[in-house]
């Protein structure tokens, strides 16, 4: 198994890509700490992993709150002694609202989850990884972090910034044995679409001009994450792995 005895934290693990990553990593031998904002979903994924013979610990956390993230890291260390792999997966959409119409509250909410959360978690685990001289951080970004018309202003800005954070972390800490990479999924059948409640017409028109996105499955993104987490990608650091079925190749 590729991740035998590795301690992995997956945020947003209650559904979609996060759940697929948590279950696949457990299948590959990891001790998985599944974090989510929904206690019900945490219990579901933890139970699923245990019933399949894996090891899991569910921890309730809102990644936009630094205190929640620190508690997540602390409880993981209390339970398993360390953190080997961090998967910053938690994220929300933004109703495709353009900058001319975005509210301060909306902007802060999206960046709080999509950017601040990964920063809080990365900052906390780096202290642990630096002591060990090794570790892996995977940020689930988006093709919205590579192109302008794949979301609203807040979402696109947050994902561009997350990719910047990924590259900076890789450049600074790569020499310390810590690899940091990002995945940029395109259209994926997940519950994140449920965070789109009232799509903005102007924003939707811009996305429409980008063409229709092929839809992938969460499991396909999980396998991309597994590659980046495993020793098979030992020489891969600071990359953005696009997984979009060719959407952005057109």
UniProtKB/TrEMBL annotation:
Record keyword Oxidoreductase present: yes
User: Biological process (GO) annotations?
Assistant: bile acid metabolic process
Q: Which InterPro entries does its entry note?
A: NAD(P)-bd_dom_sf, Sc_DH/Rdtase_CS, SDR_fam
Q: Which PROSITE patterns match?
A: ADH_SHORT
Question: Does this UniProt record's set of keywords contain Oxidoreductase?
Answer: yes
List the Gene Ontology MF annotations in alphabetical order.
oxidoreductase activity
| Highest taxon of source | Bacteria
Which keywords does this chain's UniProt record carry? Oxidoreductase
Q: Which Pfam families match?
A: adh_short_C2
Q: Which PANTHER family match?
A: DEHYDROGENASES, SHORT CHAIN, ESTRADIOL 17-BETA-DEHYDROGENASE 8-RELATED
Q: Which family does it belong to?
A: Belongs to the short-chain dehydrogenases/reductases (SDR) family.
| This protein's name | NAD(P)-dependent dehydrogenase (Short-subunit alcohol dehydrogenase family)
**What species is given as this protein's source?**
Fontibacillus phaseoli
């Amino acid at each position: 198994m590729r991740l035998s005895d590795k301690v992995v934290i997956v945020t947003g693990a209650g559904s979609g890509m996060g759940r697929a990553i948590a279950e696949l990593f457990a299948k590959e031998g990891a001790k998985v700490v599944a974090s989510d904002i929904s206690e019900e979903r945490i219990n579901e994924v933890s139970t699923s992993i245990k019933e399949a013979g894996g090891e899991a610990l569910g921890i309730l956390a809102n990644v936009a709150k630094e205190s929640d993230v620190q508690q997540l890291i602390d409880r993981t260390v209390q339970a398993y002694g360390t953190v080997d792999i961090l998967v910053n997966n938690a994220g929300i959409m933004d109703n495709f609202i353009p900058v001319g119409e975005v509210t301060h509250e909306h902007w802060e909410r999206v960046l709080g989850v999509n950017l601040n959360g990964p920063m809080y978690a990365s900052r906390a685990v780096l202290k642990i990884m630096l002591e060990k001289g090794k570790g892996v951080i995977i940020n689930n970004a988006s093709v919205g972090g590579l192109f302008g018309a794949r979301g609203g202003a807040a979402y696109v800005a947050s994902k561009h910034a997350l990719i910047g954070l990924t590259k900076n972390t890789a450049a600074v800490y790569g020499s310390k044995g810590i690899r940091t990479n990002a995945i940029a999924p395109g259209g994926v059948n997940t519950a994140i679409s449920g965070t789109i409640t009232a799509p903005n017409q102007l924003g939707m028109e811009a996305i429409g001009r980008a063409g229709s996105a092929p839809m992938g499955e969460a499991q396909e993104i999980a396998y991309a994450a597994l590659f980046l987490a495993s020793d098979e990608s030992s020489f891969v650091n600071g990359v953005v792995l696009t997984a979009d079925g060719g959407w952005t190749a057109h």
